[in-house]
Amino acid sequence: MPRIIDVSVPVGPGMLTYPGDPVVSTERVSDMSSGDSSNVSLVSMSTHTGTHVDPPVHFVADGATIDQVPLDTLIGPARVIDMRGVSTIGAPELEDREVPASTERLLFLTDWSARWGEVSPTFPEVYTALSPDGARWLVERGVRLVGTDFISIESTGDPTFPVHRTLLGANVAIVEGLDLREVRPGVYTLWCLPLKIRDGDGGPARAVLVSD
Residue 52 catalytic? Predict the structure, then answer.
């Protein structure tokens, strides 16, 4: 039987968010315990909350919006590579992993996945990020989707966001905030379905990996 691994993080108040982004809040607006006929809640959050997809328009003014990202980009074979112990993912690190030329979806397992078990992790000063030359390496090899377990694939050091601009400018979808604690390096089938937000610049997603 295939194994289905949920690689999405739970969404709720107190969760890790990118500095400056709105925090998650929930409010019960209809409550059965108060005599209402049903339970209904209001949720407020960024479109880049938790496990989410960055479409081109996130950094490309006329780029595709989240509802325009092709489903065949978000669904299909994906290779998980071990980047634990690596501070920066550049072209040399990617070359060392001997990623097959046919790879279209690549997911990075970093040291951060182990921290998703914390109740309320704080945004770290240092985390594993993709470098600009690593982003160019992925584009040159025809990767269509790249994902990571931290909530940003790019370091906070450069305000011009060259990694996002390189990837999204080449229509490479970015998945951030994956929980890969239960995943071993290897090849899986990825199903990553973001909310179909009209004209959205991002979309929180439910993502799973299916092993053969």
Answer: no
